[in-house]
Amino acid sequence: MTIGSLYSSTIADIFLQAKKSSSPIIFPTDTIYGIGAVLSDIKAQESVFQIKKRNRNSPFPILVSDIEMATEIANLNNISDSCKKLIYPSWQNQTTFILNAKNTLNNIYKKDDKVAIRLSSSKQLSEIIRTVGEPITATSVNISGEKEINSFNDIFNKYIDIVHFYIYANTISEQSSTVIDLTYNEPIIIR
Which of 130, 136, 164, 179 could disulfide-link to 191, CB 3.0 to 4.6 Å? Predict the structure, then answer.
């Protein structure tokens, strides 16, 4: 079992250790606590689906460190002008955008050729993603359909026998991100 603070200078190492063992990790996002893994670790992603009892037709949001990383997995060129007006001011405001996925993105991350992406507003989390060198998935820590768990102690006690990598932080938001679909001519607010 590995536990570390979000504010540790070596916190990215926990993500790299989890990747070596194809294990998911529980960590604070810029909104609520999430469970996920690095994008290239399909086996760990499969574990998250099992842990959450989540339908495989509901892919996880992907966190990126910057817009350049987002362009590796989503097509930002075909966004309508009205959607472009929304994306850049909102990009780091705890907003997840539904975008057209690139063909090269694994199908596990897509639904109807779309992908959910969020640029983390957390400086620490963005730095972790940069250091790891690839996006990470993040979905709420709960069984799908149930209320999110947002207390580190409650999460740890519930998942101690299932998840072996944890990152904690003292304060965290109580609200999930806003979700906006930008694949149409006009933005559609999902949540």
Answer: 179
Question: What is the C-alpha R_g of the chain?
Answer: 16
Spatial separation of the C-alpha atoms in residues 46 and 37, rounded to whole Å: 10
For domain 2-189, the CATH superfamily is DHBP synthase (3.90.870.10)
Q: Evaluate whether 32 touches 48 at the Cβ level (below 8 Å).
A: no
Mean pLDDT computed over 74-83:
87
8 Å CB contact between 163 and 23: yes
Encoding tokens for residue 185?
A: 């001519």
| Structural tokens at position 131 | 């250091």
Q: Is beta strand 95-101 parallel, antiparallel or unpaired with respect to 114-119?
A: antiparallel
Q: What is the mean pLDDT of the chain?
A: 89
Q: How many CA atoms lie within 13 A of 76 on its CB side?
A: 17
Higher per-residue confidence, 112 vs 91:
112
